[in-house]
Amino acid sequence: MDKFPVLRFAVAAGLFLSLHAVIVTIGAMTGVPGMRPFADLLTQFYGPYGYSVSGAGIVAGALLGFSEGFVHFGIFGLIYKWLPISR
Prior knowledge:
- By secondary structure, this protein is mostly helical.
- It is 75% helix and 0% strand.
- It contains 3 helices and no strands.
- It has helices at 6-30, 35-46, 55-82.
- Helix 1 crosses helix 2 (35-46) and helix 1 packs antiparallel against helix 3 (55-82).
- The mean pLDDT is 92.
């Protein structure tokens, strides 16, 4: 499995978490039922880094979500690639 696409995996995860933060923030701003608790969690995690439920928060959430997904799932992908599992 030396050909596992770690970079593609990390970018896909970053895009997924970025899109998630954008959808949750827009949903909370427009009053979609059930989105506010998720936006509050994002505020709790990303608030110290500039996230809020606002227009600027959409951009901050997208950037923070991408960076978190890219780093965490990139590390996960590298670990998976290096595991000595016979395939």
